Protein 1
Amino acid sequence: MQVIKKTQSIYFQLAAVLVAALAVAAFTFGVLNITVSDYVCRKIVNSDYVVNKDIRHIQSLQEYADKYDISMYDIEALDKWGEAQDLNFFDVYAEDMWIYTGMYSPKTTAETLMDYYSKYGDSGNYYPVNFADGTADVYVYGTYASKIDNYILIAEFILSLIVFLGISMTAIRRIITYICTLKNEIEILEGGNLEYQITVAGSNELSELAAGLDKMRKSFAQQIETEKNLINSNRQMITEMSHDLRTPLTNLMLYLEILRLKKYRDEDQMNRYIDKAADKAGQLKQISDSLFEHITRISMEISEPYARHPFRDVLYDVISEMTEYLSDAGFEVKAPAEWEDTYITADIAGINRITGNITSNIIKYADPEFPVVIDARSTGVYTGLKFSNRIKATGKAGSGIGIKSIQHLMNEMGGCMYTEEKDGVFSIYIGFR
């Protein structure tokens, strides 16, 4: 499994996105604070907003002074009025002399004045107010301008937060979308479509998970295909075995019938038939043994190599018996005159099954008026035998199971098999390595 680098980890990627989003949001807040706040403040200063608010406060103070007939030196009454207003402070002057200052801010007087003049400059105005003991000039600085600043600050913070969340959620949404994609693709696999390829994107833990799922999909599909091939192979093997069993079984029954009816010339011929019957019984045992060996080899997926044998030693006796049997059935057989001096990879039981199939097909489909020719020949890679016979004019086509069985057996031994039909002559070649 591939090792994910720290820089490719989802944690690292998300942390990097969050840091980048925070930096962009802070930059956005700074730009807005410098540009928007300054612009709004200047608009306020250059508008009648502050002046109108100041005038309304002066009118309120004038009404308060008239109603309660207060003196400009009545500090308690002035404090009471100032506390009811949204003011930071206000000053009262008479004859160019300072009389009163009302402070309604947590800041000191110097801080309040500095904050005001840094934002709005000397834009305030003095307004005359008639008190019970004379007229005084009043200067007011209200918190209404500061409230606008606070609202602007809150709006800037909200916009910066939206930028931060937008960048962060985009990255998170991409991850969530990929997770949803994997979920949907897993559901497709659960539905049985193992051909569907899992999407592998990126190089983080999720992409590694997706790659692992895709490997598991391929492995599972391969396992199912292997099991399917095993089932087909077993089915084919059973079909071939049942076909192969019929040939020696038929011969065995024929010899036993001859012996039972005593259709033999003398004791020597009787013994020969007994030997042939015993031989066919042995072939049946070999085929049944091969059946179990074949099942074991397929189930355990073991490919055991076959032994090497001299070409002539393996096939000479088999061909001699085949020749004798075909001769008894009324066929003329031309056996090989020369044999290749080489070794072949072969299974004796398999060769008996092959020659048994060929013999059975000759008896069923060959014309006994023409000889059966058997040639031993080598093609360089393969050394084997070629069987040729003329087809009966009224012969019916076979099921092909025997040919498939021969092909299967030759493949198991690492050999080859091919057939040829030309001008009414059918030939089959079995070659061994």
Protein 2
Amino acid sequence: MSHDSKQLWGYAAAAGTVAIWSGFILISRLGGKSVLTPYDVLALRMGTAALLLLPFAGGLPRGAWRDGRLWTLALLGGLLYGVLVYSGFKHAPAAHAA
């Protein structure tokens, strides 16, 4: 891979990161302003992500599903974070999250 190609991939990755995070903030704020509860928005987010990632679950190592660290990170990093963020969007503007 040439230097120009690597640089182009770097810019594309940076633009993708900005698009994902800004989309997360805007959609979360929209959910926070709606009649949905933070739990509803979290269920929609986790359900969609689970459906999109399910085809890749077969590639995990065999013992990964029994690893307690995996479940701890999923609960704390996914569910707890989501509930707190979506609860905050009920009371704060999107600019504060950005």
Protein 3
Amino acid sequence: MPQVLNRAVLMLRYKQPFVDWINATEPDPKQKLKLSDANSDSTCYLIEVEEEEELDGWLKVNGAALFEAELHGWFPDQELWPKDRSRALFDKWCAYELHTLVFDTGTTPLLDSEE
């Protein structure tokens, strides 16, 4: 029987401005990315909220770290990141979906990739 996790899934999808930044920052002009390619495998985060109404508060506290994690995933050099990393820019660059019912169907323990 699948176990219900005490987490929600926050799935991010890039909007065109994020892809435009990636393409403007990418040194190889042959490596241009399309929006559909950037969103072909979206990043998902397990977060601690129980209902959708809590998401805005969670993003106020954690949104900057989330945005920086996404920027770092493309270009680790912070000098290449936009100077404005506000919640407003995050919302302009990313769309997100929240799923509050999360089942663990695996049989092995969840592991921390840092261990």
